Amino acid sequence: MNIDGKTKLVGILGDPVSHSLSPRMQNAAFAAAGLNFCYVPLSVSHKELPAAIEGLRAMRFRGANVTIPHKVAAAKLLDCLDESAARTGAVNTIVSSGGGLTGHNTDGAGFISALTEATKLDFRRAPAVIFGAGGAARSVAVALAEKGVPRIAIINRTMEKASDLKALLMLEFPQVEAFAIGFKEDCADLIFSSKLLINATSLGMDGDLKRFPMAVDKLTEDHIVCDLVYRGAKETPLLAAAREKGATSMGGLAMLLHQGAASFKLWTGAEPPIEIMRSALESK
Ligand code: NAP
Fold it and tell me: What is the pTM (predicted TM-score) of this model?
């Protein structure tokens, strides 16, 4: 990497951010595409987020990714939002152009691309349970509703956020049956009668399934279990439990790849070198 006066900067705003594999993946992609770009991790607390976004502007960053826990808050701090960000109320990609910062959301499309690559799922016959109601859960829920899933149950620790997401689904997708459920409620039957089970909380990052409020014993080999959390080459505890039950599983790296490829295209206008990005992730 030759950093010089013309290098365009891109970063990832998050807390924590040190675990992120995006710098590795995006810098490999910029190098392979011969682009003078550099991608840096930026550890930013909740309180510092407005200043950090102003900093992107002041330092002429080409853009940024936004990750846990800032996706919803960032949407309120930008000059405008594209349709994907406006619909979900969450931003994972910022692009600077013409002096303004625009928020985009590539998480939902990245999740669908990853799932389509990994399975032959008929979305119209796939009721879903989503754990979480943060930025990633909102994107995944909207993307699944757009694909025609018949039912989405949102299970979250903070009931208010689950109810907000349910309200969004009911407003935008009245044909989808939507539920909001608290973490301590019994959701075993909903899990049993669903096809897709998605973890969009940050639980499992530490490798501990014990706090996971789900009836893992309701999983069968007909389920598809997706964990948005990734732990490098290590399996998350949810995916380990799914494998033991014979369920199909998809880890977070597949979604990371596809959402990152879409962000790359937004910043550079170039086609993302997908296989280089995949190798960068898999070699970690
Ligand atoms: P977020 O907006 O901060 O939402 C975090 C979610 O996790 C909320 O639903 C929160 O519940 C829940 N949560 C956090 N700590 C918890 C705890 N101790 N007990 C119960 N629930 C807890 O974050 P996000 O951006 O949606 O990201 C969520 C996860 O998805 C992160 O691990 C992130 O790395 C991962 N992700 C992966 C990809 C990928 O490409 N693989 C893309 C996006 C996100 P409350 O509402 O109750 O706080």
Answer: 0.95
